[in-house]
Amino acid sequence: MNQTLTDIDADLDADPTSEVAPHPRTRPALVAALSAPQGFGDQTLRSPRPDAIELLGGIPDPSVLPASELAEATTRVLSRPGSPALQYSRAEGLPQLREWIAAREGVAPERILITNGGFHGLSLAVQAVVERGDLVAVDNPVFPLFLRGLQLSAARTLPIPVGPQGLDVARLAEELRGGARPSALYTVPDFHNPAQSVLPEAERRELVRLAERYGFVVIADNPYRELRFSGEQVTTAPFYESDHVIEVGTFTKTLGPGLRLGWVVLPERFRDDVIALRSRADGHSSTLVQAIVAELVTGDPGLFDRVLNRARALYRDRATVLANALESAAPGAFDIEDPEGGLFLWPRLRDERIDPERLAEDASATGVEYQRGSFFPSGPGTDADRHLRLSYGDNDADRLREAAARLGRAIAAQPR
Ligand SMILES: Cc1ncc(COP(=O)(O)O)c(C=O)c1O
């Protein structure tokens, strides 16, 4: 006779010697091992003034995101008979969207896999190429969220300096000749976050040559590339020609971070692995969001470029306003490289007597918040801590001028 659950409970209650060992509900080791990544410091704990101007994140301005165009595309997509956009779809993404991205990037559509944004693409790339405990070479200073993701692989990191010409590929070569054997290298080749530099073509080629020679995979994280507003685009061809590079793209900075939509350009040899990873996690990116974006960019073929041009013009103006306002509010206080794209200035404090940590606190007290260069984990050999990362993406010209004026007052008050 089958015992019911009630019978079993009754048996257990009747027998005081029977001990049920419950599952030892501890935090899984992977979760317990997570710690605040180096570099975040206590800055995130400070409470800003209610009237603070925040020059913090790489946030696109709402005025240049195509909200009404997305609304129209959504209506068209959902009016299709049978609403296919509400159904499951394939792990690698909708064919129309993959084809459009592939044509824009100049690669075969089979190499595109759609993701839930850039961070997701980075996480898939790491899972596909980094073994637990591996050495991973990283930008120095580095985008901290990459390190946060890397924690899950318990990887060790090898910081490689990033200067005004991007990643120091010669230094990487030295490390490799000295015996370092990373399984991957992470870099932001265009409008580096935070250092804003762009890796020249010759260095891209040399980086790929090193990857092929020493057997590591370059994870090229490229969220800002489309936001170039002056100068010449540097080719990505060396990356796409190599089967040692995974390029990570996203619509976050161009169409909006809330879409959570991006892609990876995969060498063929990683495709099946990444699809296999995907089918063990979220299955695929939202069919609806993919269909809406595919409709947006293919329904009117010139639209994406018009959206980009609107954004580039706005960010070019804002970058100029902020750079000029800083120079007049704090004459000679900073070395400022005029950016050719992206969403940030990365000015360097000239006067060595100014303590950047103290300045950040005083600036906060005068009502302006920004990321200190030391927020970006940096080993020895860089002067990142002498820099400020100032975002001009989502503040209009008046607020940028006011932010510069407040920063100027904080600088004037520094002990020297
Ligand atoms: C360098 C870098 N990589 C990746 C991302 C993440 O992009 P997404 O919002 O698409 O996940 C960002 C966003 O700020 C970034 O600056």
Q: Please, could you describe this protein's structure?
A:
- The relative contact order is 0.16.
- With 416 residues, the protein is of the alpha/beta class.
- The strands form 3 sheets. It has an 8-stranded mixed beta sheet with strand order 2-9-8-7-6-3-4-5, with helices on both faces.
- The chain folds into 2 domains: 43-59 and 305-412, Alpha-Beta Complex (Aspartate Aminotransferase, domain 1), CATH 3.90.1150; 68-300, Aspartate Aminotransferase, domain 2, CATH 3.40.640.10.
- The chain contains 14 helices and 14 strands.
- β3, α6 (144-150) and β4 form a beta-alpha-beta unit.
- The mean pLDDT is 93.
- It has helices at 5-14, 29-32, 67-78, 95-105, 118-129, 144-150, 169-177, 201-214, 237-240, 268-278, 287-299, 303-329, 356-366, 397-412; strands at residues 53-55, 112-115, 135-140, 156-163, 166-167, 184-187, 217-221, 245-250, 262-265, 334-335, 344-345, 348-349, 368-372, 388-391.
- α12 (303-329) runs parallel beside α14 (397-412) and α13 packs across α14.
- It binds pyridoxal-5'-phosphate.
Q: Quick summary of this structure?
A:
The protein is α/β, with parallel strands linked by helices and 416 residues long. The chain has 14 helices and 14 strands. It has 2 domains: 125 residues, Aspartate Aminotransferase, domain 1, CATH 3.90.1150; 233 residues, Type I PLP-dependent aspartate aminotransferase-like (Major domain) (Aspartate Aminotransferase, domain 2), CATH 3.40.640.10.
